[in-house]
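Annotators were shown the component list below and the corresponding predicted structure, then asked to write short factual statements about the assembly.
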Amino acid sequence: MHCLTLTPRFYETDAFGHINNTVVAGWFETGRATVFELFAEADKPAVMPLILARIEVDFVGQIYYGAEVEIRTRVGELGNSSFEVLQEAWQKGALVARGRAVQVHFDHATQRSAPLSDDKRRLLEGLR
Amino acid sequence: MHCLTLTPRFYETDAFGHINNTVVAGWFETGRATVFELFAEADKPAVMPLILARIEVDFVGQIYYGAEVEIRTRVGELGNSSFEVLQEAWQKGALVARGRAVQVHFDHATQRSAPLSDDKRRLLEGLR
Amino acid sequence: MHCLTLTPRFYETDAFGHINNTVVAGWFETGRATVFELFAEADKPAVMPLILARIEVDFVGQIYYGAEVEIRTRVGELGNSSFEVLQEAWQKGALVARGRAVQVHFDHATQRSAPLSDDKRRLLEGLR
Amino acid sequence: MHCLTLTPRFYETDAFGHINNTVVAGWFETGRATVFELFAEADKPAVMPLILARIEVDFVGQIYYGAEVEIRTRVGELGNSSFEVLQEAWQKGALVARGRAVQVHFDHATQRSAPLSDDKRRLLEGLR
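Structure shown to annotators:
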C-alpha cells in the first residue's frame, strides 16, 4: 500500500463549503502516480502504456478544507492485461471516500491491450 | 433526457495530448445541473437537499481538444430517497464516456436521507 | 473583438459561495483560443509557436453561479515578437474581471522568440 | 517568508507536456493560505474579511511534471486597507514563475474596504 498526504486547497472547495466531489477523482489519479511510475519510461510521460478504463468513487463523508487528507492506494485484482487499483481517502481519522480504478496495459503501437509481463506483475504485487 | 454542449478547454488537456480523464467527472457534474435545478431553492445553493453518494465513469474513447462534446443526462432508477443519473459524453458522433451517479435526497436539518415527495418524483420522471 | 459565452460550473465555485478567482485565469485562457487558432498548425497542438509570458487579472466584481459569463477578447499592442491580449469578463451587464496577457511568438527549434511575420500581424490586427 | 512544497499532479499538465499556466494561479492561491490564516475566524471560512483585487503572474520557465515545486510567499507593501503578496515558484533550483497579488481588507457587513488594524499589520509584517 502507498500513502500520499495532501493538503486540500481553497479552490478545491465549492459553494456547499466543503471539498467538491469532482476533486476527489483528481486526488485519486494523483495517488495512482505510484502505479504509473512502475510503467513510465524515463522522460516519456506521453507514451505510458496504461489506459484508464473505469473509475468508481463512493463519497462516504464530507471532506473539509483545513485538515490534511491521506490517500491510500493499493493494487487489487490482476487480470491478464488489466488490473484494479483500490483507493481510500481519510481525513481526521475517518474514511471519507473510497475509489476503484481499472487500468488497462496498452500498446500504443498496435492500439490494443497487451498482456502484463511477469516483471510488471511482480511490481504490481508489491503494491498490494 | 437533457443535452449540454461543451467546448473542451485547453487547460483540460494533459501531457498525453487528450482531455484528462478526471475532467470528465466535472463535465458530468455540470450536466447534472439540470437535476439540481429541480431541487434548488432560489438563491440558496448552499442548502440544496441532495448529496452525491457515488459516481462511476467508463472511459470508452479518447476525448480530443478542438471538437465539441455533448453531455447527455437522464434519470435512471428512482428509489425511496435516492435516484440514479445516467450520463453519456459524445464527440464527433462517437460515445466517448459513460457515467452513473447516485444522488441521495438529504435533509440537512436532521442530517439524514429523506423520502422523495411525489412532486419531486414527477419532476425526476420528466428527465427520463 | 471575439466573444465567448460560458456557463459557470458548480465545481468552479468555492466556499465563499462565488466563482473562485483562480478559475478566471482558465476562462481567459479559453477566450484566447481565438488567438491560438491563428497560430496553430493543423493537428499539432503540441508545437504551437506561442509562449505565455505574463498574465494580469483585475477582479472587479463577484462572479456568481447561475448566470452566463461573456468573455471578450481582443488583441492590444503588437511588438516585434510579442503581443498583448486584452480581455474582459461580463455577467448580468456588469464588468466582473479584466485581464491582460502577454504572448511571445516562439521558435521551439531554436528555443528563442521569433519576429511576427506580416501575415501573422494582419491576422492579429483582425482581432483588435 | 513562507515556503510550501507542492508535487505537480498529472492532471495539471496540458497537451504541451508541461504544467498548464493557469494552474500556477491556483498554486499561488494555495501559498497565500499562510496569509488567509492571519485573518480567518475559526470555522468561518465563508466570512473571511479579505478580497482579492488583482493577480499578476510572470511565467519565467517551463514547469515540469515529476519534480517538486516550492512556492515562496511573503508580504510586500502594506497600504491603509490593502496589501501586496509577492510570490515565487521554484523547481530544480530555478525560478519558474513570479506572482503578485493585491488583497483588500474588506468588511462584509458594510461591503466596503476597511483599514488594517495595528494588530493585523504586525502579523503581516511577520511574513515579510
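Statements collected:
1. Chain D has a mean pLDDT of 95.
2. The beta strands of chain D are 2-6, 50-59, 69-78, 82-91, 94-107, 112-113.
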